[in-house]
Design brief:
Blueprint (H helix, E strand, L loop, with lengths): L3 E4 L1 H10 L3 H5 L4 E5 H10 L3 H13 L2 E2 L3 H18 L3 H19 L3 E4 L2 H10 L3 E4 L1
Parallel strand pairs: 1-2, 1-4, 2-3, 4-5
Helix pairs in contact: 5-6, 6-7
Length: about 140
Amino acid sequence: MTNLVIFDTSIFVDYLRQERHQERLENLTGILRTSAVVLAELWRGATRQQERKFLTQLEANHPVLVPTPGNWIESGQILADLRAKHGFLPDKLRDLHFDVLIALTARAHGARLITSNHTDFELIRKVRPFLLEVW
């Protein structure tokens, strides 16, 4: 088991926009890796120079993990399962897709995924187990 940690987009958004999680981030135990999916989501929403600087430093200082072709295929299978079990409409499935990819990337590397979005990630974890910590 590795001691890798991947943060979900929600943690960084909380930190950058609401100054939350500062103490936890400073006291983090583990080796930080960054998800390419998280970086893409963060860049999409970065509106301030401070946010763009943070993202540039995050990418430069922590290796970026990328979903494999198998992760992409499996993500579609998981979303199909969730649609069948919960009757989710296409909009909800689109909203979940990147979260599923982040979870599968963490799972593939044995990393602990830290999020403040407990609802969606607990739902995903019921279909594919992975290490999850909710802040």
